[in-house]
Design brief:
10 helices, globular, five-stranded parallel β-sheet, binds guanine, about 290 residues, three-stranded parallel β-sheet, alpha/beta, Rossmann fold, 2 domains, about 40% helix
């Protein structure tokens, strides 16, 4: 299928990482600062283990200092809070990331709110989310920021366009919808969820469709108008007997069904997922350089 239809997360994230690498060298040479990122992973959720490993590798690749705390499932909430409190004070750490979801006995909200919002490179703290909505400077959640960066770097117009978001999670749906209504992007945004009646009525109006519902192949070609731009945030593992592992990753969009009808589309894997990591690195670099909160 035509190359220009594909918004390639590999190419765009590699460009961003190259830019970051240069800035890291500058920051080290001019101000003797090395960006530092602390990871906290509780339990052994396989997807989370993979994500944290990939994020750690990106730190190595870009010259960041990083420390990973892989803690057992039985770790108490107070132990995690204590660890966070230490990193809040640690001058060598500019970003703190607690991989979500956390086990059920740990209160996610309490954990997020305990992170110094000036080191909240995930952009999940209410202080950052509030500022995002107002349009003030803040850390923006990495996946939504990655979506916007992909759109901008692909030369896609957002002003006056209908953006339809499927999904309203705190990590993707809510922040991405709030980004697109800002004056910087000027879109008209509709947010759908699993209770939306006649979802097709909404998705058929989308100039830009952002699928973040966590359901494999949820968006089918009959749900989109011709020439829409599709951003697929989904990362779902489905059984596939033809693969050695017995499974493969697919998005929330029926890629093969939609590629003939849309104007652009992000693949899974190789799309938004790679951007999430690139933007985490960017947020951490900006934190180290004092670009967000000085
Ligand atoms: N779980 C899924 N996505 C994310 C993310 O971007 N950050 C964190 N901390 N956890 C996640």
């Amino acid at each position: 299928m035509s190359e220009e239809k594909i918004i390639d997360g590999k190419i765009i994230s590699a460009q961003i990482k190259e830019e970051i690498k240069k800035e890291v060298i500058n920051l080290k040479n001019k101000r003797n600062i090395t960006p530092g990122l602390a990871f906290i992973l509780v339990g052994e959720n396989p997807a989370s283990v993979t994500y944290v490993k990939s994020k750690g590798k990106a730190c190595e690749e870009l010259g960041f200092y990083s420390v990973t705390n892989a803690l057992p499932e039985s770790t108490s909430e107070s132990e995690v809070l204590e660890l966070i409190s230490g990193y809040n004070e640690d001058k060598s750490i500019h970003g703190i990331l607690v991989q979500l979801p956390v086990p059920g006995h740990i209160n996610e909200e309490k954990i997020i709110e305990s992170i110094n919002y000036k080191k909240d490179v995930d952009g999940f703290h209410p202080q950052n989310i509030g500022r995002l909505i107002i349009g003030s400077k803040c850390f923006i959640p990495c996946t939504p920021l990655g979506v916007v960066e992909m759109i901008k770097r692909s030369g896609i117009e957002t002003k006056g366009k209908n953006v339809v978001v499927i999904g309203r999670s705190n990590i993707v749906g809510k922040p991405v919808a709030n980004l697109f209504i800002q004056k910087s992007l000027n879109s008209t945004v509709t947010v759908c969820n699993s209770f939306t009646k006649d979802i097709k009525e909404h998705t058929l109006k989308a100039d830009i469709l952002i699928a973040a519902i966590g359901k494999p192949h949820f968006v089918t070609s009959d749900m989109i108008k011709k020439d829409t731009v599709i951003i697929d945030v989904g990362i779902n593992r489905i059984p596939d007997a033809s693969k050695k592992s017995g499974s493969r990753l697919v998005g929330d969009v029926d890629y093969d069904g939609c590629i003939g009808k849309c104007s652009k589309i992000t693949p899974v894997p190789g799309g938004v997922g790679l951007m999430t990591i690139a933007m985490l690195m960017k947020n951490t670099l900006d934190s180290a350089a004092g670009k967000i909160y000085g």
